[in-house]
Write a structure and sequence with these properties.
two-stranded antiparallel sheet, Four Helix Bundle (Hemerythrin (Met), subunit A), globular, 227 residues
C-alpha cells in the first residue's frame, strides 16, 4: 500500500504543473485574467514544491525507491521549473519599455518578469546537457548521482519563480508605496543568481563526467585490473 504513495505524489505534482501552466496561459499582464490568478498560481507552485519534498522523504523512509520515481520525479521537476521560466519570458508578460515612445524612435518591449529568452536557453541547455551526460555514464555502468550544486540550483530556481509571481502580481502596490525600485533589484539579483548557479552547476557536472570518462578509459586499458 505505502509503496504507491510517493509515485502518486509525483503524479499529483505533474497534474499541479498542468494547472499552474493553465493559469499562466490565461493570465496576461494588464490584459485578460484576474490578478488573483497569480496568487492561485503561487499557492499551486508551493503545493507542488511540498509534494516534491514529501514524495522523496516517504520513498526514503519506506525504502520504496523505484524506476518510476527515479525517472519521472526529476522529469516533473524540470517541466515545472523550465515551463515557468518559458512562460515568464513569453508574450503574456511583455510590456512596452515606455508607455509613449519618443517621436522617431521604435518602441522597445521587455518582460515585466525580468526574464529574457536567452536566460531560458541557458536553463534548458544545462538540463539537456546534464541529462545526456547522466545517461551516457549510467549506460556505461557508472554512478552519476545528483550533486549539491544541482540541488542548490533547484532551490534557487523555485524561490526565484515564487518571487517573480509576487513581484508581478503586487507591482501596482509596490509602485504606490515606492517599493518597486528596491523590489526590482531584489528580483533581478535572484534571476541572475539563478542563471549563474545554473551555469556553475552545469560545469560541475561536466567535470564529474570528464573524471568518470577518464576512469573508464584507464580501466579499459590493456593490462589494467579492476578493483
Amino acid at each position: 500500500m505505502f509503496r504507491h504513495v510517493p509515485n502518486a505524489l509525483t503524479g499529483l505534482r505533474l497534474l499541479l504543473a498542468l494547472v499552474f501552466f493553465a493559469m499562466l496561459s490565461f493570465y496576461q499582464y494588464e490584459g485578460r485574467g484576474d490578478p488573483t490568478l497569480l496568487n492561485s498560481a503561487f499557492l499551486v507552485y508551493l503545493v507542488a514544491l511540498f509534494t516534491d519534498f514529501l514524495d522523496g522523504y516517504l520513498a526514503r523512509k519506506w525504502h520504496v525507491e523505484g524506476p518510476f520515481g527515479r525517472i519521472v520525479d526529476p522529469f516533473v521537476d524540470k517541466i515545472l521549473v523550465l515551463g515557468a521560466f518559458i512562460f515568464f519570458a513569453g508574450k503574456n508578460f511583455i510590456i512596452p519599455d515606455t508607455e509613449v515612445p519618443s517621436p522617431g524612435h521604435l518602441m522597445v518591449v521587455k518582460t515585466i518578469t525580468g526574464v529574457a529568452p536567452a536566460m531560458v536557453v541557458i536553463l534548458l541547455a544545462r538540463e539537456l546537457l546534464v541529462t545526456t551526460l547522466r545517461g551516457e555514464a549510467e549506460a556505461a555502468g557508472q554512478y552519476f548521482g545528483a550533486e549539491f550544486s544541482g540541488k542548490l540550483k533547484m532551490v534557487l530556481q523555485s524561490i526565484t519563480i515564487l518571487m517573480i509571481l509576487v513581484y508581478v502580481n503586487y507591482l501596482p502596490w509596490l509602485k504606490n508605496r515606492h517599493y518597486e525600485p528596491a523590489a526590482k533589484i531584489v528580483r533581478d539579483i535572484f534571476i541572475y543568481l539563478t542563471v549563474i548557479v545554473t551555469l556553475a552547476s552545469g560545469l560541475s557536472y561536466i567535470r564529474t563526467a570528464i573524471a568518470l570518462y577518464q576512469t573508464r578509459n584507464i580501466e579499459n586499458q590493456p593490462g589494467s585490473r579492476s578493483k
